[in-house]
Design a protein that fits this description.
Helix content is about 35%, strand content about 20%. The protein is an alpha/beta fold and about 210 residues long. It is globular and about 55 Å long. The mean pLDDT is about 95.
């Protein structure tokens, strides 16, 4: 059983704390039909990266900023999301101020999804609006570490997507991969892989650190 020690935990959102699979698939495919773009091609790359970057790749002829705003506004009003099993209990087990969320979605979208799911919105919430370079660039997780006032080496990241794992590792952080969106073999860059959040236990060690058992 792997055991990690860290000062703070940074969570990805979609596929880790919330299950938004149906909403993401429905809204992206509806947008693709409106624009005459292959929905399957979009879904092959849409997980774990910023909306604007997906649009730049599949539809470089469109105004990526305007299209991203349209899609994320639709997604933010789609309540077809649920908390991942064990998410609320895990968050409640972490001392206040010792966890945050780093997501490729917008602040509007991330906040809406957490509220739909009954999850607390953390003080440290890094979104697509806060960075110049999205995952797999290390900027999102490095900004998360900075905002939570912990060195990157003292952060543990929980991620479900290869792009997010690459981002965290490029920032020299430890990573637990969660095989919810991708098969475990796609998460080989992680230090450990779990199937569900319920398999993760967090407890303070009394010396200012968190002990994470997987």
């Amino acid at each position: 059983m792997p055991i990690f020690s860290c000062a703070a935990i940074l969570f990805d959102l979609d596929g880790v704390l919330v299950d938004s699979t149906r909403a993401v698939d429905r809204e992206w495919r509806a947008w693709a039909r409106r624009k005459g773009i292959d929905g399957d091609a979009i879904m092959a790359i849409a997980h774990g990266v910023r909306t604007i970057e997906v649009i730049r790749q599949v539809a470089p002829h469109l105004d990526a900023e305007a299209e991203a705003a349209e899609i994320e506004d639709e997604e933010a009003h789609d309540p077809d999301v649920i908390a991942m099993p064990g998410a609320l209990d895990l968050l409640r087990s972490i001392p206040a101020g010792r966890w945050g969320v780093v997501t490729s979605g917008s602040r509007l979208l991330a906040s809406a999804r957490m509220r739909f799911c009954g999850l607390p919105v953390p003080e440290v919430l890094i979104t697509a609006d806060d960075v110049t370079n999205g995952k797999p660039h290390p900027e999102p997780y490095l900004k998360g570490a900075e905002r939570i006032r912990v060195s990157p080496a003292e952060c543990l990241v929980i991620e479900d997507a290869p792009a997010g794992i690459q981002s965290a590792r490029a920032g020299e952080m430890k990573v637990i991969g969660m095989a919810s969106t991708y098969a475990a073999e796609r998460l080989a860059g992680a230090d450990a892989v779990v199937q569900m959040l319920r398999h993760i236990r967090v407890s303070p060690n009394g010396a200012g650190k968190l002990v994470i058992e997987v």
